Amino acid sequence: MYSSLHHGGSPSDSEASSFASDPPSDSLGVLGGDGHAVGDALALFPPSTSLSSRYHSILLRAKLSARQRSPSPWNTGPKDKTPPLPWLQQEHNHNAKSPHSHDTSPASSSSSSMIQLEDREEDELGMSSPGPSTTNWLEEPDVSSRSVLKTRRARSHAEADRALRWAASVKTDDWDTWEASWRQGAFRREARGRKQSRLAAEPQALTTPSRQSDDLESIRKILGTLRVSQQQEEEALKNDFNKRSEQLWFDIEQTIRKAEDDTRKAAEAEAERLRSMRLKQIEQERIAEETRRKEQQRVEEERRAEERTREEKRQKEQEQLEQKHKEEQQARVEKEAQERKSVAFSNAKKDYEHWKASMEDIKKNVLPAVSSNPTWKKQCFDAKRRITPKISQLTNSREEVVRIAILEVLNAAKGTGAKDIYIWILNHLSKCLIRQAEQEVAVNQSAAFPLAQVVSWLLLEDHVELGTVLMSRLVKKCCWCLPYLPLPSPGQDDQSYLKQIGRKDREESQNNYVSRMCGIFAFYMAVLQTKPTSPPSSFAIGAAPAVERIPEHFRSFALWRWQAQSLQPPLVHQSLTPNLWSTFFDIAGATAQRLYGRQAAKVWLLLFTEGIRAKRAKWSTCEDATAATARLTLLLEQWQREGSFKEAKGSQMGP
Known about the structure:
Elements: H1 2-6, H2 13-21, H3 25-30, H4 36-42, H5 51-69, H6 86-97, H7 106-125, H8 143-170, H9 174-201, H10 209-340, H11 343-372, H12 374-391, H13 398-404, H14 406-415, H15 419-441, H16 448-460, H17 465-477, H18 494-500, H19 510-529, H20 557-566, H21 577-613, H22 626-642
Helix pairs in contact: 2-5, 4-10, 5-7, 6-9, 7-8, 7-9, 11-15, 11-17, 12-14, 12-15, 15-17, 15-19, 16-19, 19-21, 20-21, 21-22
């Protein structure tokens, strides 16, 4: 790097750094062999001055000193008479005497150093102002030296400006700005004065080795003083910056704390306001709730008082109704008792007692006798297996009735000579017929006619005992066929009485009970309206039917008796009666009209006008009989319009 400077070059920052860490030996020799002089010289420049510029100035000084010590063709004197470095001595003296030497601020140091650097560069290149000089070895600078000088001056001025701007950026108030401007002008005037003094004293200055050592020592002292001053100033700046920073953060914290206090106070005030509003709202709600509760209590008390009054009134009315009902019931019982003494009711009761006793005889005598005899039991069960499926296969066709061949089973049982076997089989046949009526006829009334035809033919085939057994079982399952309604016996429980009038049990619904009773009653009416015809047996073909074999209770005379008794108590008071009348008209209405003509019309007109329209029949006002009464009314109105009832569907047997 030294060679580049010696030839007029400018070192780079990297070369300057290497020079600072390991300066060349010739420069150390020039500076008195002390490498610390270079570091001391560097301290003269502010931090904003580039490293290459600072080393460039130091090396220029070293080069001038070396030239003065080296022999020159223009200077043939001895070495000990080589003039010393007058500019170093003058600079030292001037700094010692200058009133501004105590100012070690970055701006002043930078300006002074740059002015000195310009002066020394002019001296080095021979461009200083004219005057007497004893250094005849300096040559007149050429054009290239001038361009180099201009470049270096421009760079030095730029670096000085940057140093001034850096120093100005540290100060922030107007006093610092004015002081920096004043110092800059003072430094420039001082630099010009130094330059003139140096030029005036330079021709007379001669250097010696001892003087050079003194100069270097002076430089070291000056550099040390400057370093200490710079450190003190930096420390002062740092302390001032720290104080300002602490004050700034203190102000910031105070502002934040004040803002937090204001926010907290505002939040507390808002919370207090909301709390007071909430308390007021709670109080208002409590008052409203208390008012509402009192109002509800008042309304509830009024409602309870009204309910008590209404309940007392209802109880009184209920008691009056019950008393009236008891009186009416007592009167009705007494009236029924009187009416039961009539001939018709007496006959119905006798008939009921007769058929009931007949059923009891079968139950007590016939059934145990068959059960105790294995042979009879086997014969009875064989007949049972043959009869049961055939009854369910009956259709309204002569050919189908003949094909079923129930007659063969009965003839075989009658031919055994054992009456108990024969009665047991007839009882089972009656059960099958009534069961079929309960299940199928209740749904389809036309299914009653083939069952009635089987009964009629079996009676005409001389199985007269079937009439007794079948009627006994009909009365047991449906007492309405007589018609008769038995009264409960003394000490009889409800379950047994319900079974006596045809109910299965207490849980059976009214609709199911009415349906079963109407199915059995339809089967009985179908038997009564069936016209006797020749049975399908071979020996009876072409012969007149033996109608005398048909018992009285299965003849058409029973149709008139049933109509007459159903208009008398107790049937006139029962809710099932209108259902039975409707079934009567559906199954046997046309037959009854054909047999009894005007007499039947009188009975039906009495039923329609007095029983339904005048509501003299108790069932006409009964809620359970509303639908049945309406249907019966439609049938009677149709009869009045048309003058007759239509033949029941399926009443005529097919081939």
